[in-house]
Amino acid sequence: MSCCCVALLALGACVSEPVEWGDVTYRRSQLGDPDARSAVLSANLPAIKDAPSPCLRSIRSASAGSDLFRIWWASRADSSVVLLAQHSADGGATWQQPLIVDARDRGRRGCDRPSPAIFYDQPHRYLHAVYFLEAADGPGVFVAHSMDNGAMFHAPVPVVYGNRPSEASIAANGDSVVVVFEDPNATTPRIGIVLSHTTGHIFEGRGEATPDDIEAVRPWVALDHRKIMVWWKKPVPNSEGQTADQVGFRVGLWK
Question: Worst-scoring range by mean pLDDT, 5-14, 19-28, 161-170, 232-241?
């Protein structure tokens, strides 16, 4: 039982965790881990008038068949950013005009910020993005999604508010969406999780993806029906003496 649940139990208000988790295991980093990728797909990257400086290291991509998507931050003159997305229907040979996913940032970090994450659900033609942004109503992690193959994005939905810049990851299967993120409000590094059965319009479930006694950063997630798979890295230095190339892994069942 989590520490939050213990505290709430005394008030008679404990809510059960939305995921039944298995044991934690570790492996070494390997080619293909998201954190091991450098900037990709920067060829012919367009610039927009209000944010002319693309953050090349922030580019992330998702693909299935001939559909290819890329998402990235572009910096304004005042060092705030705009989140942009672009779709190619022919595997990157040509690109459609970029779309503004979120232009609400009021921070002054420029390109010195966590990269966004992207996921493409090909059977449903849904495109999902998750990212940290400093909006006027408060900084935090937000989700935006497109339900028409990236032609238009719905208004962003907050995942968690907090001042600390946080990396996040997203996975989906139809109306089921899972987001994992570095908890910006935790006193020790840990990974939070939110879950939605409404395509990310509302997140009905909330919990912790890592145990209380494990320090974790830089997560990524996969979803297979009700099976949730979460990976993360250990912060460096860390109290367990583990090295930066060790990856934590855990499987859970969405209740």
Answer: 5-14
Check residue 15 and give its pLDDT: 58
Structure tokens at 131: 């990212």
What integer is the mean pLDDT of 149-166? 96
In whole angstroms, what separates CA 188 from the centre of its chain?
19
CATH of the domain at 92: 2.120.10.10
Based on the structure, what is the number of domains in the chain? 1
211: in domain: yes
CA angle 127, 132, 136 (to 5 degrees): 110
Higher-pLDDT residue of 17, 156: 156
Answer whether 128's CB lies under 8 Å from 122's CB: no
Tokens representing residue 17 in the block: 């965790």
Mean pLDDT within 142-168: 96
In this structure, what token pair is assigned to residue 118? 């992207």
Q: Name the residue type at position 254.
A: W
Tokens found for residue 240: 């367990």
Residue 104 CB neighbour total at 10 angstroms: 15
Identify whether 100 is part of a domain.
Answer: yes
Q: How far apart are CA 132 and CA 159, in angstroms?
A: 10
